[in-house]
């Protein structure tokens, strides 16, 4: 049997990792609505064709998790797109390059540890920014895209939290998270600059995602809050009414 479901990965020149969160089965068997929640790498390189596609999708808001310098280097201000800066400063790449420049060495195992530390920082130090995303989503159900630079780590954790709040199964959340490895392509100039300082095998860790990265965040949530539901309530400030409102807006009736 064939279906006519919308496409999850949307070809949007200027991005490589622009995806729809729709279709995953959530609370009470209701699926996440298509074409209202999007995740992406940064939007600074969008072409006129891409902007036309963005308009046709009805996207009116972007939530930008990039740090200050990232937003300065790759700035965008697209007509009709209201941008919200939810600043989460990147640390792992800077730590890696600084260590190598100081004469140290960085193994694949070291890099994995750095990535896991980064994800744990999302849970605790950067919780306010992710909670702010939920406040935006509760204001109105206008189609929204949230992103960072590559759309993999900060964006990946944001997507996991949204899907958790909508009652999507952990296996589906991990599946969505790992799709970055299928779609994201590093810009050639960025890859060349990074390769001058960082070994290729380390870059492969930095620019891809692994189940263990996401799991390190989940483990901290479990350890410090007793589980995701408590974390959503206590830290993301999603009480019963807020979760009901999210599900009413972003799940199929």
From TrEMBL:
Entry-linked Pfam families: Y_phosphatase3
Domain Tyrosine specific protein phosphatases residues, every copy: 128-197
PROSITE patterns: TYR_PHOSPHATASE_1 (PS00383), TYR_PHOSPHATASE_2 (PS50056)
Family: Belongs to the protein-tyrosine phosphatase family.
Protein name as annotated: Tyrosine-protein phosphatase
Record organism: Comamonas avium
